[in-house]
Specification:
The protein is of the alpha/beta class and 216 residues long. The protein contains 8 helices and 7 strands; from the N terminus they run αααβαβαβαβαβαββ. It has a 7-stranded mixed beta sheet with strand order 3-2-1-4-5-7-6, with helices on both faces. Helix 3 runs parallel beside helix 4. The termini are far apart. The model has no long low-confidence stretch (mean pLDDT 96). It binds S-adenosylmethionine (SAM). The site of S-adenosylmethionine (SAM) has 18 residues, from helix 4, strand 2 and helix 6.
């Protein structure tokens, strides 16, 4: 099943609407599309940019760097003010990301780490004002639990891919190969939407984005 979150014509329209103003980010978006790197689609990237602009986080943590597109989008959204730590376990992608971050002149502020986020998150010092979870879909809950003690009050956690191509919301039995993924994502969204510590909005943007605020 292709993305069945909105209608294909809306998807196509939004994916072509308003490219990033920043020529470097536009080139990075094109590189990701060309090389089949699973970087945020344009509407998701615009949302990240906007959230960083609104939130003005001093520190951001990203789980799942790929080639650095969303990390640099968040950085641009923060007005290049945020300090960002971003974690990628695939070494080839990590090296590409580091080159891209360097070419953007951001290596002093955006720190890429190579390794498994489930191990590295525990080793990070300090708190974060904004977290973007975008690594293995089935592990989002585990990343969230690890990140939560490091989130500042009023902090924001953004999770991508929560609608899993529409399967999370689709009626009827999912295909066997998607059953576990669907169950995990439904449990995760139930948790985000019912736990009294958080306020969560689930948006049908891209592959589905959950925006969660830790109440202060
Ligand atoms: N956030 C990126 C963007 O929008 O430009 C896209 C990230 S891509 C969807 C997910 C990335 O997470 C992949 O490059 C994958 O190698 C990485 N990943 C998967 N599991 C991981 C883990 N446990 N720790 C760190 N990175 C992981």
């Amino acid at each position: 099943m292709d993305n069945q979150i909105t209608y294909p014509y809306i998807e196509e329209y939004l994916n072509e609407l308003e490219p990033p103003e920043d020529a470097f980010l536009l080139a990075l978006e094109e590189e990701a599309r060309r090389d089949n790197v699973p970087a945020a689609v344009r509407p998701t990237a615009r949302l990240l940019y906007l959230l960083a602009k609104l939130k003005q986080p001093a520190r951001i943590l990203e789980v799942g760097t790929a080639i650095g597109y969303s990390a640099l989008t968040l950085y641009a959204g923060s007005g290049k003010q945020a300090k960002i730590v971003t974690i990628e376990k695939d070494e080839e992608r990590f090296l590409l990301a580091r080159n891209n971050i360097r070419a953007y002149g951001a290596l002093g502020d955006v720190k890429p780490l190579c390794g498994d986020a489930e191990e590295l998150i525990d080793t990070l010092d300090g708190t974060f004002d904004m977290v973007f979870i975008d690594a293995a879909k089935g592990a989002s809950m585990r990343y969230f639990e690890k990140v939560l003690p490091k989130l500042s009050l009023g902090g924001m956690i953004v999770t991508d891919n929560v609608l899993y191509g529409g399967r999370t919301a689709a009626p009827g039995e999912p295909l066997h190969k998607h059953r576990t993924g669907v169950r995990i994502m439904r449990e995760y969204l139930d948790f985000l939407c019912t736990d009294s510590r958080f306020y969560t909005a689930v948006l049908p943007v891209g592959d589905g984005v959950a925006v969660t605020l830790l109440k202060d």
